[in-house]
Amino acid sequence: MSAATFGLYHPGTSVVHRLPAGAKLLALCAAGVGSVFAASVLGVTAYLAVAVLVPLVARVPGRALVRQLRPLLVFVVVLAGFHALVSSPERAYVVVGMLLALVLLATALTMTTPTSALVDVVVRVAGPLRRVGVDPERLGLLLALGLRAIPVVIGLALEVRDAQRARGLGASPRAFAVPLIVRSLRHADRVGEALAARGVDD
């Protein structure tokens, strides 16, 4: 399965789609800051309810949403087990629940907002930083590359997993992680060479 299958943005006409990119980005930042003050079972439950409601209102395809979140499952299970072991099940729920809620909201943002609109917002907001030597366009480029890297890495992970199964290597973490890292680094090299060829220095 190719990485191209995993585009982040899904066009639509829902209320969430029609909201300005800046407003959605600001709301996500506010949710991140607010999560510090809502670190309780009740607060996390409220966050999760909103995080599930937003994709439903946006009518984001459920399969596409799950596909974006699936790479996090192993990490989430390990994190929950760690906190349940060293602290309590309630603490595990708070940590993992808040993480999932914020990831869901961020995923809903990228799936309902074109990358170009997000880049424009970042470049516009970072404009005043030009006076202190920061290049807003470079920040926008970094955001675009970061967002584009997500579906690419997911695609590489699935390719490695398919190859792992074909070779009968089962669920070996090493057999999965090493080729994924190597392929990701090769992809990063290719992107760097393409940018250099277009006059974008590093």
From TrEMBL:
Subcellular location(s) per record: Membrane
Chief location category: membrane
Membrane topology: Multi-pass membrane protein
TM spans (from-to): 25-49, 69-86, 93-119, 139-158
Protein keywords: Membrane, Transmembrane, Transmembrane helix
InterPro entries associated with the record: ABC/ECF_trnsptr_transmembrane (IPR003339)
Pfam families: CbiQ
Listed name of the protein: Biotin transport system permease protein
Taxonomy of the source species: Bacteria, Bacillati, Actinomycetota, Actinomycetes, Propionibacteriales
